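Worked Example 4.2. Consider the chain below.
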Amino acid sequence: MNKISQIIAEELNIRENQVEAAIKLIDEGNTIPFIARYRKEVTGGLSDEVLRDLGERLTYLRNLEKRKEEVVKSIEEQGKLTEEISKSIEEAKTLAEVEDIYRPYKPKKKTRATVAKAKGLEPLANIIMEQKETKPIEEIAKAFVNVDTVEDDTDKDKIVANVEEAIGGALDIIAENISDNPKYRKKIKGICYREAVINVKASNPEEKSSYDMYYDFNESIKRLPSHRILAINRGEKEDFLKVKIDKPEDKILAYIERDIIVGHTQFEDYLKRTIEDSWKRLIEPSIDREIRSDLTEKAEEKAIKVFGKNAKQLLLGAPIKNLTVIGFDPAYRTGCKIAVIDETGKVLETTTIYPTEPQNDVENSAKVLLNLIKKYDVNMFAIGNGTASRESEIFVADVIKRAKEELGKDVHYAIVSEAGASVYSASKLATEEYPDINVSLRGAISIARRLQDPLAELVKIDPKSIGVGQYQHDVDQKKLSESLTGVVEDAVNKVGVDVNTATPSLLQYISGINKTIANNIVKFRDENGKIKERKELLKVPKLGKAAFEQCAGFIRVFDGKNPLEVTAVHPESYEIAEKLLNKIGYNKEDLTDKEKLKEIKTKLAEINVPNTAKELEVGEMTLKDIIDELSKPGRDPREEMPKPVLRADVLKFEDLREGQILTGTVRNVTDFGAFVDVGVKHDGLVHISELSNSFVKNPSDVVSVGDIVKVKVIGIDQDRQKVKLSMKV
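Applying the procedure from the previous section yields the following structure tokens:
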């Protein structure tokens, strides 16, 4: 355990006692959101991101230890375990290193070397490797020729017909031994990682594709960024690219020769040829596979991290509250689907209009929308960003103009990502939510609700379908799914959930609550009416004391019996919170009085945290959190996030000019830059080199999904409808 803690502490740059404390809490069954929020004193304030990384490394290192034990046991059973092998296995830092050490002892399928061993040629191989014998090798090999002595048909696999066959078989054994030598493999991999170059060519140079930048491409593998690795992999998979790794072969062969060949003996040429054969036939193909696999794994890891970070920002997007919204799901032939949603998310009306091709029924469509704006006092349009979005945006901007002129009503619109809306529309969950509403109209409802409350709506969709990453469909789907589930959990628990309005999809991400318990909470609510306090949850079937401890602080009870329950103060700290309020001359009921709340906030800001923590016998970090919560009861942390850009007019691609300064929303962040929506059809790219005047190693350090940024137009490609942007404004 100590060794694992030490490794993790070094890797994550945290103290070993923090790691040990976190591991103990994880092993006791506590969730990451609970540990991050309510066990800060124990872990020294480790964040949810660090704790997730810690959890991942813990699993990997425990699997590594388990594999080491299995390998040691297997080699020991073969009677071949030495002190040196034990030490090598113990010092191995990765599963790949352990497998390299185990390679010579692994039960093998039939190979040229195993066939030669079965013929009894291993002693001859040893003689050649020792390079001491002065008698001609042909003379030595004669002793191994047995064609005349094998009579039984069952032994014909053991026949050595002549001297050439004996020497060839012995050299096959040597070639395999060289290939299996972990010392050589480690050294060769090191040389390749420092000096190898990836060489990419087009399968058919005449054929156009999105991979044409890689049609004649080479780059040192140590400099190859993750997005390029994944792009090359995809191009190869789709048969557009051919990929080869160029390695310093002469250097590798010279290294092995120096280690094996002792001087100018009769064995020198045999060994040189054998080393080359071992390299070309056995070592190089497997090293190629391992390097490609290693590069892919690291690139996938990076892509999953980027995807998770982007998804979290999207999930934590600022909600647009207290507005009636028209969800507008654009389309051509099948018509644009419309859903009017009130400020609580309730569906008021749905319809379909045909303002786009082929019908082009603009006037009637406009009248329908103007009537809906008037009838329901609509404030906002949420327009999906899919097919026909651009035409729909132009049409809506015109309707907004008319609403101002004819109805005296100010209406705005925002473009909303509709990634995964169609998946959700046809899902079992959508059918349960809207059994009487057509599948095609459910997308418009989802788009409107995403603007009102991104988190509550996006949790209904498989996180992979959220669509903010790079090559998310090419990476290990199990790892992606695990990572994104963690991201959604962290986002949901950061915000907290209103226990009386939350859907099972939202509740199931709360710490300690699974799908079954989430459904049981909703059923309990339906049967018993509104939940009035957190401890009522203990009456919910399958929600025991352990689950209650994990979930209670993340549950919000508005208009309940206890004003503390609109905050993230955990029931275990209620007594401390009340003592703190009493200390400044108030009680928990005063939190519901706006005037008194202002006074409470002022007095809490003056608290001496270290002294008060000692007095109340509570940790300083916990006390700070309690002060924050009591200062803003019911606060939604998403309100501090950038609000969506609301527009009333439309910007055409043709209106763009180089040097123009625009305001846009960051829609996606990748390794190579950020995509920003400035209100034209396609998002513009701010390349990593244009993100800042200073050097940027990682775009995520500078921008996040949902950020509102000022950008300058620095390039316009009319043919491809692409725009290059810069944040060096």
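The chain has 29 helices and 15 strands. The longest helix spans residues 268-315. Compare this with Example 4.1 before moving on.
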